[in-house]
Amino acid sequence: MRRRAGFDAPMDIELSEIRQFLAQYPPFDELSAQALNELPRQLTARYYKRGSTLVTAGRSNQFMFVLRSGAVDILDPHGALVERSEPGTCFGMSSVIAGGPSTYTMIAREDSLTYLMPAEVFNGLIRAEPPFGHFFMTKQAGRIRSAVEAVHVAESGGAILKTRVRDILKRAPIWTAPTSSIRDAAVVMSEERVSALLVLKDEKLVGIVTDRDLRSKVIAVGRDISEPVSAVMTRNPHTIAAGAHAFEVLLDMTEKNVHHLPVLDDDKVIGLVTAGDLMRLDQANPIYLVGDIAKQTDLEGLQRCAQRLPSIVETYVARDASADDIGRVVTAVGDAFTRKLLNFAEAELGAPPVRYCWVALGSQARLEQGLQSDQDSAVILDDSVAPEQLPYFAQLTRHVVDGLEACGYQLCPGDMMATNPQWRQPLQTWSRYFSAWMNEPEPDALLNAQTFFDMRPIYGDNSLFTRLQNPVVSRAPQSTRFLTHLAKQCQAWQPPIGFFRDFVLETEGEHKNTLDLKAGGIIAIVQMARLFALSKGLTQVNTRARLESAATVDALSKENADNLADAFELINYVRLRHQVRQLKSGRKPDSHLAPADLTSFEKRHLRDAFGIVRKMQSAVAYLYQVQYL
User: Fold this and answer.
1) Model confidence over 469-480: pLDDT tens digits?
2) Around 416, how many Cα atoms within 13 Å sit in the side-chain half-sphere?
3) Is the pLDDT of residue 563 over 70?
4) How does strand 196-201 pair with strand 175-176?
């Protein structure tokens, strides 16, 4: 074994003893006998005193470390602990594989003895010993998780995005029985200093009475206050689950124009949350924009509101909110614009002649809208609609689509919008559409299936959407031919990474010499998540939710679901940061990045993320027996 002067320990340990030590731990226990016999001679032993630095972030590192004794802390660029290595574990391989500076700082927590493996020896074993290489390549998933956590160290605020409702409830439910008098209910509200009172019967929620109810339904009309409170309460009020995020609750309140929501945990009432409770969490949050959109009276007002969205995204990127959270914020704003424009259209055209449901498609449906997202929408009409009533909906959809375009939402290049009569149909027609798409694997049918299986109701009668979605999704697991063609589509978008982990760049056109993050990673993960969910009849639409749910029913392993979710988050986050930089410089946001614009941290972990995508595409190809490109 080689010795290094100055810092290295005296080499009085027999090589056979080192071999025996290595053979106890993966991946050395899977090395061939010849490789394991030769390896001890190629290592250098080095002692590190407690508190000394082995590797510094940003500096070159030429060794993969094996810890023989002691403990070493691995810290991310923010100084947060990523991992604490124990005897037998390896570290330092990220920079050795990437051939660049280390992303992490490594500090001896205790007096530690390490074996240093030179980069050329490590890379040689990767090539010559497949199990050894597989071990370290799969460790990239753990690095992706650490990278995702590293870029989300919040600089300030963000509570509205992270806090769950159950965490802000400060008191038990204040309630009364439906037989209590209005007077008694008012007395309880006054004594408890609450602006709303839950009404329970046999511990079940049956209604809610608010200050506004007392003013408008009792005082204003001179109602007898000895009447039961059930006479003035709002029956079967909207509720929210205890696990919902605070931001979701605020959006729900804005959409339904309510200021109080009972909180349920497994159908049991555990409290009441008010708009004031939530607003106090974070005074700089996008709910103000959503609220202002709801107050506008004309298109010009909406256009002024639309100008504020980029700065909100910029704020949350600066706060290191997750790409998933930011996507939900942008989508919530897009939903608010859509609903308000529908209000305007109905006010001008009159009440709709039949029930209808406006549905979002694509990224808006998945709660993943970004700064460059275009419009994707459709309308489900009640089957009772008559031919003479169809012009009403043609005008209504034109109002909305044109209004959204005026607010900065680009028209869909493929005309997947409600203004297209093909996507403005009665429920029965929509059911026939989906049956045809699932039974006819033509290119257009597959394109439509990918778009319309990502569908979410925005406005109108949601039951029309439910009546369409439930039977369609329930048939999907038995539609093996359809699923096979979806699996083929998962191979159509290849990650921009070569065999030797070099980036593959665009070779021509406007975006020559750049990476396409959307085509090279985001789309592929969206497609795989959709396939996994539909293969088990799951109704979730959001990509992360699809992956999480699919893992619970064994459509894929939890490890693979987590890896894909982390890769999706990281790629999206890098894209968001890129788009914010473009906006600041006055450019139109896109998904094309020049490698020179990426930090070493981003380059390293994008390679990891693309590697995960490629690995999962290969697994999908094998599972469905389709060609892996």
Assistant:
1) 999 999 999 998
2) 24
3) yes
4) parallel
